Queue: 3 jobs
Job 1
Amino acid sequence: MKIGILGTGMVGSTIGTKLIQLGHDVKMGSRTATNEKAIAWAQKNGIHASQGTFTTAAAFGEIVFNCTHGVASIEALNLAGAHNLKNKILIDIANALDFSKGMPPSLSVCNTDSLGEQIQRAFPDVKIVKTLNTMNCNLMVNPNLVANGDHVIFISGNDAGAKAKVEEILREWFEWKSVIDLGDITTARATEMLLPIWILLMGKYQSPNFNFKIVR
Amino acid sequence: MKIGILGTGMVGSTIGTKLIQLGHDVKMGSRTATNEKAIAWAQKNGIHASQGTFTTAAAFGEIVFNCTHGVASIEALNLAGAHNLKNKILIDIANALDFSKGMPPSLSVCNTDSLGEQIQRAFPDVKIVKTLNTMNCNLMVNPNLVANGDHVIFISGNDAGAKAKVEEILREWFEWKSVIDLGDITTARATEMLLPIWILLMGKYQSPNFNFKIVR
């Protein structure tokens, strides 16, 4: 499958590399076509890896991953262009962490709204599925790194077909065993609001290699 | 020990009853000394149970539990009186859930502040310890109800001695095995922000008998 990755950070490169390993064609997009991290990533990952602008990566992907910083996501998606994303699944991994007031960061949107909803409102013809935003990127693509994968991932979105496809990606490509569909995109508020405790726990454990499990 | 319980709802009566069973003297406080739920609770729980106003319950307790609705907690604590709480441990279980805009509720304070912090600022001479606010009341006093108690409870507060005492209460009185001290009272933001996903999961499971575990 042809997949676009928006963002050149740890999340984008980790997801992109995993998708290449699975045999997909991946284009990593950034603000310019000369981003050094994107060029290095594409060179390292073989002929199925390429890079370009947000626009060309969005146009390239049959499915697109939003791996940009949450506070810059809307701007990045505007650069990608609504017409390049139209009717596609956009997997939104971003968290709207605002570091401008120091550590720990706060959220630039939460409680009565969420980044997932903001993106869905701004791009009504795109199928936004919020997921993968509640754990470290190494766990995103390899949940078996901790506790034999016995922990959870959440999924939120308005389009049932898009959520079914994303759940298939999570289970079959990334090997997630426990996927919890929380409901429509408004439920992204709840997962985005997990970030404050995730950040505290990362500081406490001095490691990002942990995740939430729900016991009943 | 003499313990004051502020609030006559499910949380207050469940905690109060557990404390009575453990042999403590408990006074349940409410806005008036004629609250029917408080009178019924006191009559049902024997000679070590009593009831009165927020003021008399706060004055009675060597330790006080805030089991009021979060949006009304500051007002209830003002009625209790700062002088009646001075230098005492106040275990703050409340969540600032705002149901005024329908379901699901939003939080009336979050992200850059928390109810725990608001209470600590309003009552600087009281040792606020935020805990027990991230699970159903039956689990609060009996974590072994699910998964043999293999799940977590968080604790936040500025006073190390107060937190040590509350951790002892959680472990020895209520049988919690995994108590995570997140840090000072500002970390209450993170646990209060767990409520949105807790509420979604309760709806999904149609049961409040679940809790979070952290796997590493």
Note: Chain B has a mean pLDDT of 98.
Job 2
Amino acid sequence: MIFYDCATAPSPRRARMFIAEKGLRVESREISIAKGEQLTPEFRAVNPDAMLPALEIAPGQVLTENLGIAAYLEARFPEPPLMGRSAEEKGAVMMWNAIAETQCGLAVAEALRNANPHMKDRALPGPENFPQIPELAARGLRRIDLFFDKLDRHLAGRDFVAGDGFSMADITCFVFVDFARVVKRRVGPAHGDLLRWYESVKARPSAQA
Amino acid sequence: MIFYDCATAPSPRRARMFIAEKGLRVESREISIAKGEQLTPEFRAVNPDAMLPALEIAPGQVLTENLGIAAYLEARFPEPPLMGRSAEEKGAVMMWNAIAETQCGLAVAEALRNANPHMKDRALPGPENFPQIPELAARGLRRIDLFFDKLDRHLAGRDFVAGDGFSMADITCFVFVDFARVVKRRVGPAHGDLLRWYESVKARPSAQA
């Protein structure tokens, strides 16, 4: 397998943490988004959508999207399970993964991509250029604040986002909450339960992978 | 189980098709988004996010988000599989499901919610109001066109979106492609492979569920 990664971006970090939590060693190639390497013909031969992460699982056979990569790895390397053991847990992991993607991940992307002068015309990832929409940056910040409140409430009395153990839901929430620093949103003492959980995930070796 | 549904909206339709393809009969309750019933205290006691679909799997235990509901049902009722059999297929189904959600579902929502006068201040689903952003409506239309092109190319020589059989990837692509009619985008002869696949999914009993 070849894992196409980018050290600075949140989406490939989710897959990198998933791989590390599985205890897998996978050959990886760094694609620098800062240098625009995801838009080169070489990388677009791997993923025409010009997005990271991507996992080549056999010559010419490439999976993209975090859930595509995770579902494959979970089926091939079931232990430790990161997508739930029981039906209830599998449902809860996917539910919180989706909530984190739409309510936090997309919000951070909106806030960053529509305001950062280095991302002019890169309001969306992918091969097509889209102009920035400043109102979307403001909306993104508001949505991040709402998500921090929500996740803090949810984590009261809990050690993990979904089910009884560490899962992909923790990875997705952690990576997006952590990445919110790029738009000056950081977890602080006002969100005590969120902060406790955040520090516990940050202390895992996979968070340094 | 109690399935909270809305006949007019694409997200609950995805879950409704999934349930129908599994051959399950589930008690359902209609929540009218047109009447704003998802925002009532009664429904927010079921799902504080004020979104559909939702599936109560035990008294007081509710799963939301299509993937939360699908992962639970797939684990509890494995046949027929709708999320892939092999690791490769599971990966491909989740990959295409994610591509359809972000590149088509979100695009249709952008185009509809930011332009429809009946959706003033409802630019996003959920309990919070957000004002419409007209530029986002135009961007959504452009993204739908790009997705129709992409899915048409992908379906050349294929009967199903992912793997060797009908899956959740077909459901998600079909529901969002079909819902694009609300912003005047319809599959036509210019997209021959997309049209052939679209008609084949439309002919399934689950598409009328």
Note: Helices of chain B lie at 10-21, 41-46, 66-76, 87-113, 134-155, 168-179, 192-202.
Job 3
Amino acid sequence: MFIYVIVLTQITEQTIMDHLKLIALKDFPLVKPSDNLSLLIAESLQLNRIEIENGDVIVVAQKIISKSENRYKNIKDIVPTKKAIDLGKELQRDPGFIQIILDESSKIISTDKNIILVEHKLGLININAGIDRSNIDQKDDIVLLLPENPSKSAKKLQLDIEKLINRSISIIITDSMTRPYRSGVTNFALASSNIQSLIDLKGEQDIYGNTLKSTEIAIADELSAAAGLLMGQGNDAQPVVIIKGFNRDNYSKNDAINLIVKEEDDLYR
Amino acid sequence: MFIYVIVLTQITEQTIMDHLKLIALKDFPLVKPSDNLSLLIAESLQLNRIEIENGDVIVVAQKIISKSENRYKNIKDIVPTKKAIDLGKELQRDPGFIQIILDESSKIISTDKNIILVEHKLGLININAGIDRSNIDQKDDIVLLLPENPSKSAKKLQLDIEKLINRSISIIITDSMTRPYRSGVTNFALASSNIQSLIDLKGEQDIYGNTLKSTEIAIADELSAAAGLLMGQGNDAQPVVIIKGFNRDNYSKNDAINLIVKEEDDLYR
């Protein structure tokens, strides 16, 4: 009888997930600077009659994090440097906008093809330093920057929501991004809290019993991409998506910000 | 009364998806050359008691497509060219394996960092031409190539399954791939049938009524990444995942093979 119980436990631990459910919060309110996002999410969960269970993942669009943290900049307020003015002429873009991109970046990677590809101060490689001019409820001169410290934002949101609803949850902050080699944008994980970003299967066996050399799966990016399907354009139509059924227990819990590859380790650079 | 009906139709068309459900087929049999994959999937659906509805998306791991199409190669059968022998010495890899990579590729992009980054004949940029040495039930000398024509495989599988179960379905063939700038692999869409690969929101309005300039979402890649969460390592533990609730009606149905970006259009190259 005792042996039976042990075997059952082992099977449970090794059972891989066979289903996932994604639910977008409907009618999520427009977010304004200094809104309490954890409170808005808790209220919306109630209005949507969604029961959060321990282990649920809440995927949140970067844009509403940035809005609640008042990461707006007005291009008109910016005094561009000579570098920004020169680059503005070259690319026929507003030098104030370029100055904001430069301020958000640690280096310019390319200005070919009429875009500015940079290494963002957070380490991300992205176009225009991830700065957004769409889905902003103000004039064309206003832009929205990425959160200053998305890992800190993710951790705070996780703890604040947990306090409000008394469940253990995970948070992923997601943004959409173009990619090398592939058309269109997909959602990726900008940062996360209380969930693994990467599963390293090194040393595990494949289905034929061969030991795998190295297969790291970017779980947080896959969860983000899944949530992106429901968020709508600019991740703004439905900026909060709940993922149920994802088993986060077997893995270490690294912040997704660590999914950024250092240049010397990047096989493509 | 008539007006009421029209209004209702418009609302239905504009309603965005608010949930998705993903289900992996459990105990899917190991696939062997010349297995009838549509039959295996139809049988497994029955065993798993999963009811397919019109519009469901069936995401299938590339590996079982390749296996059913007998895309195995034995490295020992290959006579390497001088180029493969030289490259083999440089990278300390089996020249036969390198010859197979060369045969699958239209050009080598880089051999830095001890990997072979190529443009695959299908247009994909990937490492080792997407050739797999894991999860193969044979000796180390056997490798598995990508399907010769994944778009054709996707179309055939779609039509064959539809005949068997009498429902309108979509097929995505997915593989996992490393990516520039980001750690770990994610699943992407190698090819698809009867589903949009890319949603172009150009001309639509954002939530504040501004017209969007250009936001193409790589839907097929996001669906693949979502399915990848359930497939397990190498996409082989659960190689078939059903996605329910995805609204594919509003969009054109381009094969996901077209998600590959031409070099001149690639903002990162």
Note: Residues 1-14 of chain B have pLDDT under 50 and may be disordered.
